[in-house]
Amino acid sequence: MFLLMSFLTVVVIGVFSITSPDVVAIFGHSKKLVPIYRVNTPEKKLSISFDAAWGADHTPEILRVLREHNIKTTFFLVGFWVEDYPEMAKKIAEEGHEIGNHSSTHPNMGGLSEQKILRELKQAHDIIKKYTGYEPKLFRPPFGDYSNRLIKTTREFGYEVIQWDVDSLDWKDLSAKAIEDRVLKKVKKGSIVLFHNNGKNTAKAIVPIIEKLQSKGYKIVPISELLIKGNYYIDHTGEQQPGSS
User: Fold this and answer.
1) Whose CA is closest to 202, among 177, 232, 166, 184?
2) Residue 245 confidence (pLDDT)
3) Same domain assignment for residues 27 and 79
């Protein structure tokens, strides 16, 4: 009887481990870590961000729009992009925008070893610093691909891991109006919006997005300014919360 009960216990635990992530944590497996997707804030403020990995044809126009509307935001730069467009990277920094690390070679990083993650982080960090003088403190994983190892290693490196809660889908070459409608429908206090520096219609789309958000009383700030400082935790949805969990 004892052997039978022991066998059934193992089977039950095994089944729950497969079907229920919450039960996995109960039986001693590591808690799932999540990046910051958005911020819990009572203030009407949010962030728009731009990932730069390929191309730069539309970046000057994006910078012009941001400059004319007196907006400072966050650009996540890939190392090889900085090397391909060093003057553009330098201009982004010179115009007062925050620069984040977006890896060195833009791989899927969720399954990488700690050593390879650190290599991606450090190489990109050094390249960004070399060409812009800026030392990033934020990291966005390529393709939004992450794991506990990635988040733990990145935080130990000194970065906070940033995702987004509003995807403009500008990389699909949606029309400017479609991008505008999509973003304005989904955005809220504490949102982090994802754009790309070389989206075909991104520059045109962000003009009405910025103007309509500002008309509603929103302040658009760099991500580091949006984040909660001091004591905070990140809940299971990826929302950064004040206090302790």
Assistant:
1) 177
2) 74
3) no
Angle of helix 86-94 relative to helix 114-132, nearest 10 degrees? 70
Separation CA 196–CA 54 (nearest Å): 9
pLDDT in tens, 82-117: 999 999 999 999 999 999 999 999 999 999 999 999
Prediction pTM value: 0.87
| Per-residue pLDDT at 233 | 97
Write the DSSP symbol of residue 32: P
- 238 and 203 together in one domain: yes
Do residues 97 and 66 make contact, with C-beta atoms less than 8 angstroms apart? yes
Do 157 and 88 reside in the same domain of the chain?
A: yes
29, 196, 235, 236: the active-site residue: 196
- The count of domains in the chain is 2
- Can you give the residue range of the structural domain that contains 26? 1-31
Check whether residue 21 and residue 72 sit in a common domain. Answer: no
In the prediction, which pLDDT does 40 show? 98
- 173 assigned to active site: no
Cβ contact 192:166 at 8 Å: yes
Active site residue 165: no
Q: Name the active-site residue from 51, 58, 102, 170.
A: 51
The count of other CB atoms within 10 Å of the CB of residue 79 is 25
Looking at residue 85, what DSSP letter applies? S
Mean pLDDT, residues 145-158 taken together: 98
Same domain, 222 and 124: yes
Please state at what angle helix 176-186 crosses helix 202-215, rounded to 10 degrees. 40
Number of residues in the chain: 245
